[in-house]
Amino acid sequence: MRVIFLTLWVVALSAQDLLWQRDLPNENLTGGAGQFTWGRRVLQWRKSKYRQVAQAPHGYDDGGCVFGTADLILAERPATGTLGRLVHLPAPGYKPVTIDTGVELHDCVPTTLFGRSGFLMVHRFTQVRFYWLGDGRWQMQELYSIYTASRQGGLAVFDVDRDGRPDIFCGNYWVRSPEQFDLPWHIFAINVLHADSADANFVLAPWQGELIALQRENNASPLRRFSPPADVRQLWPEAASGEFRQPKVIAPLGEALWIGDATGVAEWPSGRRWATGYPVVAILPYGIVVGPNRVVRWLLQPLRK
Fold first, then answer.
1. Partners of 170 in beta bridges
2. What angle do CA 107, 113, 114 make, to 5 degrees?
3. What is the pLDDT of residues 211-244, one digit of tens each?
4. Which residues contact 96 (CB under 8 A, 6 or more apart)?
5. Closest by CA position to 133, among listed 112, 151, 105, 152
6. pLDDT tens for residues 98-107?
7. Which of 195, 253, 106, 54 is nearest to 266 (CA)?
8. Which are the contacts of 122, defined by CB distance < 8 A and separation ≥ 6?
9. What span, in angstroms and rounded, lies between the C-alpha atoms of 274 and 65?
10. Rounded Cα distance, 7 and 38, in Å
């Protein structure tokens, strides 16, 4: 009996170390990246502990990214409407620096283009923009505008045509890099899923030579795998499997994909469920999973780096 009790005690301590959860009432979490989450406030996480680093009167858009090692790029929500202030929050003070105004941010990826260190973003589901720091100030170049019946969502950087220059995945398309920064970018369709407003609002991830795409607003979104054809300027063959409800995030980790949706976190292609019962906003290091008003650290050991 004593042996059983000691065994249960050890198991309980192990579970306490590996699994914790914390309610964050009124945070209205919308996004996360690196070691940060944001909603009403910006929180920096150290495993189960956090500290506030910034706050906006009306919170932040869901899109955002870590710039450099610990800086943040976020968009402050306005009192009314959807167009707010795009800000750079430099570490360690995280005092906001205005990058631009009248911005709606849902996708953000840090990258370097032609020696310019900055980030890509999708503005209002139509414009692919590149912002970079030059001569001590933020500058912007619009790379392409996409006008279809659908919002264009999802953003990733990948050398699609293998010419040594980073190209861009966005919505239905890939955008080919020119030979010089001041030359035009060219767009090629991967698929034609844009008949309705939500069709091309994807969450995207390059993985094992393919492009993974899930429709964010779909309550029964299949996981679509687009394989590059011999001529990558043509439509890409598609294979679909599984079903996800309003998927929000994809985290490629080795041989598996971790997908967060409105029901929790699933591993693909195994189908194993790691978390259930609430919508996921982001997957952070150490297996932190973020829901609208809760942060939970589940037994996601493969997320350890």
1. 155, 173
2. 170
3. 999 999 999 999 999 999 999 999 999 999 999 9
4. 54, 56, 76, 85, 87, 88, 89
5. 112
6. 999 999 999 9
7. 253
8. 63, 105, 106, 107, 128, 129, 152, 153, 154, 155, 170, 171
9. 25
10. 39
In b/e form, how buried is each residue of 238-261, taking b as 16+ CB within 10 angstroms? beeeeebebbbbbbeeeeebbbbb
State the pLDDT confidence band at 19, using cuts at 50, 70 and 90. low
| Residue 297 predicted with pLDDT over 90 | no
Looking at residue 46, its pLDDT comes to: 87
Stretch (H or E) spanning 289: strand 288-291
Angstrom CA distances, 75 to 100, 160, 174, 217, 277, stand at 9, 29, 25, 21, 29
Contact (CB, 8 A) for 261 and 280: yes
Pairwise CA distance, residues 204 & 188, whole Å: 16
Q: Whose structure tokens read 């914790």?
A: 20
Looking up tokens 């194993």, which residue turns up? 272
How many percent of the chain have pLDDT more than 70? 90
pTM score of the predicted model: 0.90
Please report the DSSP string for 210-264 in residue order: EEEEEETT-TTEEEEEEPP-SSTTSPPPEEEEEEESS--EEEEETTEEEEEETTE
* CA neighbor of 227 nearest in space, from 245, 207, 203: 207
Average pLDDT value for residue range 111-117: 96
Nearest to residue 100, comparing CAs of 66, 75, 69?
75
pLDDT digits (tens, 9 = 90+) for 24-44: 888 999 999 999 999 999 999
3-state DSSP: the chain helix, strand, coil percent, rounded to 5?
A: 10, 50, 40
Which amino acid is located at 158 in the chain?
Answer: F
Q: Supply the Cα-derived Rg of the chain in whole angstroms.
A: 20
Tokens 């000691």 sit on residue: 6
pLDDT band at 180 (very low <50, low <70, confident <90, very high): very high
